Each structure stands twice: as C-alpha cells, then as structure tokens.
Amino acid sequence: VQLQASGGGLVQAGGSLRLSCAASGFLNNYAIGWFRQAPGKEREGVSYISGSGSITYLSDSVKGRFTISRDRAKDTVYLQMTSLKPEDTAVYYCAAVNPTIEFITFNPDYYQYWGRGTQVTVSS
Hints:
The protein has 124 residues and is an all-beta fold. Strands 2, 4, 5, 6, 9, 10 and 11 form a 7-stranded mixed beta sheet that branches. Strands 1-3-8-7 form a 4-stranded antiparallel beta sheet, with no helix packed on it. It has strands at 4-6, 9-12, 17-22, 32-37, 44-49, 56-58, 66-71, 76-81, 90-97, 111-114, 118-123. The protein is globular.
C-alpha cells in the first residue's frame, strides 16, 4: 500500500499550507502520523490522529500552529499548517500505524505503511 502525501510547496514565513495524505479505500482503518525530516536532521514526529479522528496529538514544535484532521468520506488526512517558520522546512511524510498499536506513538517501528513525502520550504 502506498500512501500519497501532497500539498507541499514554497511559502514565505507566516504563510500557510495544507498537506493531504491519501490512499484510496485504505486510510479510514488506520491511525495516521505526520513526520518531517530536514536536511542533516533526524526524522521528527509532528502530528498524530487516531483512526476515528477523536484523538489527535501535536508536537510542541507545531502546537498552536498546525492542525490535523481527517475526512472519512474522502479517506484523507490533512495537516493544516499556519504561521509557518523557516525551521518548518523539511520533507513531510505521512504514515499509517500498525492496527495492533492502540496508543499515540511516533516510533517508526510501529508504522506499517509510509508515503513518499512532500517538500515544504519556508523562506524568511
């Protein structure tokens, strides 16, 4: 199964982007995490949403600026990013949590499927 992350681009500091994660007929059964990796840095867990959408989590680095949501009718998970900063520049990935894992985690070992990533570049 291939998840598809999209919506990245080049934006000025203070701007907004909305990332989408889709995999037709698949995502609704899985909790989804968003990760990012900047050049020379380790992959960082950014946000998480449960399969039902009732539980969400944002890392401290994005709390108050990013929002995660899911549209079950469209089988898509969104990451709305506002007040973007240059330090948000990274490749953003979405990934599906192994269904046997029933807690919030950013441990990559617990993620079963990964998307290819979408580049987000924030200029100062």
